[in-house]
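Quick one before lunch.
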Amino acid sequence: MELHFLGTGAGMPSKERNTSAIALKLLEERGTIWLFDCGEATQHQILHTSIKPRKIEKIFITHLHGDHVFGLPGLLSSRSFLGGEDTLTIYGPAGLKSWIEATLALTGTHLTYPIDYVEVTEGIVFEDEQLVVRAMPLAHVITCYGYRIEQKPLLGELLVEKALALGVPKGPLLGKLKQGHDVVLETGETIYSANVTAPVKEGFVVTILGDTKLCDNAIRLAEKADIVVHEATFDAETAHLAASYGHATNVEAATVAKEAHAKNLILNHISARFLPNDIAKLLQQARAVFPSTYIANDYAQFELRNKEFKHLE
Ligand SMILES: [Zn+2]
Ligand SMILES: [Zn+2]
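Model of the zinc ion complex:
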């Protein structure tokens, strides 16, 4: 699993930071990419990466502010031009579907693929045998959600030699054992999957929050997460402004990660008021509260492999 930040700015783009978009690359897990928010010109940002728009399987929108959605019509249209045929599922607050449909209709945009819309409310918004995504409302100036993406436990690999030694014949029974099923041999003997497979491995937990002031739901969503992505529109000196604008400071984001006992924190949604020279200080202030903090710049990539976290840039 990798997180690839396509835009990390707040409100409007600057030369350093485009507006919000994060790609959750699940290429090894399911051969697809999930996008979280889609600020204006996200498709231009994507051009500087190896991401293929037709690989985008799902788009999760945190809230309907322009800096999080204005890139959708263009990206949807290009995904079509680039040969996308697979269904795209878009998750977001009420109103997102009618905005997209009106925009596509008024501009005469015909897509080569179907879109499924899921109107997000609190609770599980997606689940399959591999992953589950939960949403909870945050505390912004309009309805805004945070998402918690949990990978289900991974089956341990099959210990083939051990299974063969116990008399399991080569063939489909080995596959069943690998998938966690117990099998009965012709002799009537039961072979338990747990005895011939390595221990189950814990999956990853990634929490991606939308714009918010400090709130309890952010902590709940971030509970023991491997990675928490939290906005940091303000810093310690401008903290008096944060809550009234429905935003958080770097230090508040660090507090959320700390109280949630999360493992790593990535700050995004950085205001253009902070110049590149200020970033070290932003990071230092947050690390004083939560040491394992990182700041995402545009195109930053972070990897989580076997629960090992790595900043790739
Ligand atoms: Zn925003
Ligand atoms: Zn906002």
